[in-house]
Amino acid sequence: QKEVEQNSGPLSVPEGAIASLNCTYSDRGSQSFFWYRQYSGKSPELIMSIYSNGDKEDGRFTAQLNKASQYVSLLIRDSQPSDSATYLCAALGVSGYALNFGKGTSLLVTP
Amino acid sequence: GAGVSQSPSNKVTEKGKDVELRCDPISGHTALYWYRQSLGQGLEFLIYFQGNSAPDKSGLPSDRFSAERTGGSVSTLTIQRTQQEDSAVYLCASSPPGADTQYFGPGTRLTVL
Lengths: 111, 113
Fold this sequence. Notes:
Chain A is mainly β. Chain A has strands at 4-5, 11-14, 19-25, 33-38, 45-50, 54-58, 61-66, 71-76, 85-92, 99-101, 105-110. Chain B is an all-beta fold.
């Protein structure tokens, strides 16, 4: 069973702080990783993809990948209440098309 | 441009009935996927279509589930003889040619009474 693990949370951070979301994966063959945001009752929305070790920045979001440790993270700088949602980590399996999702981390940004 | 569309948005059915869920991918996207999200569970891969190739049905949970894609565009997921454990949100996604990023539709919430 190829698994993606996330802490379910909730992770609570004050407005303006940095939120750090973490994810580990078991399939060493995975090469592509994605972070999705899912608001309650809505479908997942793609935030970022990352393929290489290191950091990838896009606006307030930074994704980090460490393939040796099988670890992916998402940092959200200057967190806003509108960032409150569930964040899903996904790894592309060796099939090259089926995403393996974690169960998500619930983030709450308090004003 | 228009995103992935799915219909119906909600479906309530009685146990034992058949249901059909529809997905219309983003225009120009060749890959189409179905996933299921049950309460408290992660998204579960069901089936994958790529162009005119044979689909990968390895994620379908039982032979009551089937899917087709007509003309390389619209897809229909059919669940026969629905059971209560089929209650979930069924999500469709699509990808553009040569890319592995998947864009999700709004989903169909299926409730089996």
